[in-house]
Structures are given as C-alpha cells and as structure tokens.
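Slide 14.
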Amino acid sequence: MRIVLMGPPGAGKGTQAIKVAEKLQVPHISTGEIFRANLADGTPLGLEAKRYMEAGEYVPDEVTNSMVASRLAESDAAGGFILDGYPRTVAQVGELDTILAGLGTPLDKVVEITANTDEVVARLLNRAQEQGRADDTEEVIRRRMDVYAEQTEPLVRVYSERGLLLKVDGMGSMDEVTARLLTALGA
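Slide 15: predicted structure.
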C-alpha cells in the first residue's frame, strides 16, 4: 500500500507511522529523516537544504520535492510506503501526483489522524516539560495547531474529493489507535 499519513502535532503520527509500516512491511518515509539522511551524506540536495536551514529559512518546495522523489524511487519503496510529513501544501500534492505517475504507482489511501486539540496541547506541554523544551509554551503549541489546520484543510478537501481520505481517531492508547488505523486500511 502507498499511504500518506497526516495529523496534527502531538497526535502520535510518527509513532503510528512506524507501527503501521512495520505491520504492512513497507518503509516509513519521513521528510525529517530524508532531510537528516541527505545532510549526513552530504548530497547536493542536502547541502542546498543546509544552506536554507542555517539561514533560518524554510527549505523550498523544489528541494523537498526532489528529496522525496529520490527516496520514493528507491527499491524498498516499490512495494509501498507510508509517507509522513509530505505533502504539506496543495502544490506538493500536485508534485507527489507527478512523482507517483512517473513511477507508475498511484496513491492508495490518505489517513488523517484526528485528535482533540485540548488533549493534544496537554500531551505536548507534558512532553515539553519532560524534555526541557522551554520554547514549547501553550501559546506556541496552539499556534502550531492552528497553522496545521490552516495548511492541511485544503489537502483534506483534495484527497476527500478523490475518495482517498480516511479519518481515524488518534485519541486513546497507542495500541488502540494502531488497531483503528489497521482496521481503516483493511489490514
């Protein structure tokens, strides 16, 4: 299966992506990991991304798109994948369509993990305190949640219109959410 996994900060998306990828025996492809791997390997794309990151700027879509295209072309992704953290914009949806068309592999499902905002804020505040993240204040976390909602609403609409969108409740224990995800995917 070729799956895009979306969800607000603190909904457990990364954890669930790893668990579901393991169960489906497909790679979990995180844009954060792609960036780190390209930086560590000193690839031309990694060096270009580093230039933007060191200047405190967002890495442009064309660099991110190229990194994702390169990763999806690797042999372990031929049988499927779970894409985590991409696409984030409607423009990236179009680019992902182009990448997958070039590979001859359509997207199967887009799963949005939904979560109660107040519970997620509490979860993130607790994590910030445990990990000593002084910059993760309630105001900052709520703003990140607002930005996520603003940015993903158009993607949710696009994938819903295509009949690819599944919404899964992300509240509850890790195992309960994993079970819901696998059931929704028919796995």
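Speaker note: The first strand starts at residue 2 and ends at 6.
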